[in-house]
């Protein structure tokens, strides 16, 4: 019986088949209720008033400190660490030896020599593996995300983590703090006092307007949440449920779940032998119409995900040689695809169509039915010109959108087609029932799609600049 990911791959014989038929189900945002009002109202709040995102439960916290902590981060990330002072944060992007992205998340420099990575499991697992096996003089702690299905059992995290976002965010923040709060630079950290408690802050802009991410001891979660909602009531704040939460990225342009590029290269064999059979990497559900027998066809490099500006060759890091041999000028580019309303309506109404073919269900507002989602994007000649990677509906834009990476020479405004549904009637995933594929027209559009996000975000991971 397989005892690690490598043995599981050897046993199954195909990484693609293993992941496409994973029985884990869709990616769950745990503990936070699905809706507080309804997902349309909650989506509109981050554009029209203010929203409270509860990010406490769905991400891993990886704490690392010690003499070699910065060296560990530098040698595993494509980012430059030449200037990373205390009380700043940056998006951390590690790559495998083949140059494929493993994942990403936000890295906080909380105190001298003390860092916290916050994000999905792949990058946290990668950091822990290197911390354990790379000879680094560090201490670390892996604070795992909350269980997807806690079944009433008590849940504990080290930190609560909230975001207050939207056009009314700053008045709410200043009311919470009891006076003016300096609008520090993007991704810079500070402190405010809320209901007598010291709260750490990060200037952020997840919903396209200036706001703050705040965190502190988990025991204070309820008290801080109540204080925010009380202060925000007159400004129209809405708590956001887990159903709407993930869909904000459709407007703001972050692709959250590329397949970790760790399943094939010999350079990652030791890592695969370290990963248990119940790890994210071993149980990840690969979904969508794009199917290749070669797992490496699913790997995405930094340029394809919009992270090209992060790549800095001022330090040695895993994957550097592969990226040095990659020509950025010929890589695919990140875009938004605006789905044709008539075609999407046909998919949405299919669930009550008695006579027509059955299509893969398009859930609302997040239509993804795997952890890593790959749908084929084809041009007028039927040629595959890209991959649609995250799909759903925005009540603010009143249309279906997907985040994609497409051939660099395809201009904005081009009509393409997204193939919705899996071939051959579908895979063995629990989120899939027998169905036929359908091609949906879509227009290649800017990323971020929301005008407010394009014009108000700090240059960086959602646009074209660098953090």
How is this structure best described in words?
The radius of gyration is 22 Å and the shape is globular. The chain has helices at 5-12, 15-20, 39-48, 69-76, 121-133, 169-177, 221-232, 242-245, 248-252, 269-274, 280-283, 320-324, 341-348, 451-456, and strands at residues 50-54, 60-65, 88-92, 105-111, 114-119, 139-143, 159-165, 189-194, 197-204, 211-217, 237-240, 286-287, 333-339, 372-373, 375-378, 384-394, 399-406, 415-420, 438-445. Strand 8 (189-194) and strand 9 form a beta hairpin. Mean pLDDT is 94; it is low at 456-467. Helix 6 packs across helix 7 (221-232). Helix content is 22%, strand content 24%. The chain is of the alpha+beta class and 467 residues long. The protein is built from 14 helices and 19 strands. The strands form 4 sheets. The protein has a 6-stranded mixed sheet with strand order 8-9-10-7-1-11.
């Amino acid at each position: 019986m397989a005892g690690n990911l490598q043995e599981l791959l050897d046993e199954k014989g195909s990484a693609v088949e293993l992941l496409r038929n994973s029985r884990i189900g869709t990616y769950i945002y745990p503990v936070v209720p699905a809706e507080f009002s309804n997902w349309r109202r909650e989506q509109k709040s981050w554009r029209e008033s203010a929203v409270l995102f509860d990010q406490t439960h769905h991400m891993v916290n990886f704490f690392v400190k010690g003499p070699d902590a910065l060296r560990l981060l530098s040698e595993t990330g494509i980012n430059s660490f030449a200037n990373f002072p205390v009380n700043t944060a940056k998006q951390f992007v590690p790559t495998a030896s083949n140059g494929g992205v493993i994942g990403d998340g936000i890295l906080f420099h909380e105190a001298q020599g003390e860092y916290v990575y916050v994000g999905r499991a792949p990058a946290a697992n990668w950091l822990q593996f290197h911390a354990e096996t790379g000879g680094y003089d560090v201490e670390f702690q892996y604070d795992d995300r909350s269980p997807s299905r806690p079944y009433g059992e008590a849940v504990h995290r080290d930190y609560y983590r909230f975001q207050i976002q939207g056009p009314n965010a700053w008045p709410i923040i200043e009311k919470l703090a009891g006076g003016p709060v300096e609008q520090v630079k993007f991704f810079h950290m500070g402190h405010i006092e809320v209901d007598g408690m010291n709260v750490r802050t990060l200037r952020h802009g997840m919903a396209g307007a200036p706001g703050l991410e705040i965190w502190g001891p988990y025991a204070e979660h309820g008290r801080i949440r109540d204080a925010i909602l009380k202060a925000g009531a007159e400004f129209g704040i809405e708590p956001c449920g887990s159903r709407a939460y993930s869909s904000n990225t459709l407007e703001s342009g972050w692709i959250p779940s590329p397949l970790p590029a760790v399943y094939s290269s010999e350079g990652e064999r030791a890592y695969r032998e370290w990963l248990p059979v119940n790890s994210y990497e071993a149980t990840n559900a690969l979904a969508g119409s794009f199917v290749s027998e070669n797992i490496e066809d699913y790997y995405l490099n930094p340029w394809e995900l919009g992270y090209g500006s992060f790549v800095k060759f001022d330090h040695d890091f895993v994957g550097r040689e592969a990226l040095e041999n990659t020509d950025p000028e010929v890589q695919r580019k990140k875009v938004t695809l605006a789905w044709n309303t008539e075609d999407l309506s046909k998919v949405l109404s299919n669930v009550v169509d008695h006579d027509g073919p059955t299509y893969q269900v398009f859930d609302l507002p997040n239509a993804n039915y795997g952890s890593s989602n790959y749908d084929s994007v084809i041009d007028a000649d039927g040629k595959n010109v890209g991959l649609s990677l995250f799909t759903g509906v925005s009540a603010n834009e009143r249309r279906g959108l997907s985040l994609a990476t497409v051939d660099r020479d395809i201009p904005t405004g081009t009509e393409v087609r997204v193939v919705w549904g899996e071939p051959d009637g579908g895979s063995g995933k629990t989120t899939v029932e027998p169905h036929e594929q359908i091609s949906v027209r879509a227009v290649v559009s800017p990323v971020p799609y929301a005008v407010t996000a394009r014009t108000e975000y700090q240059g960086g991971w959602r646009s074209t600049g660098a953090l």
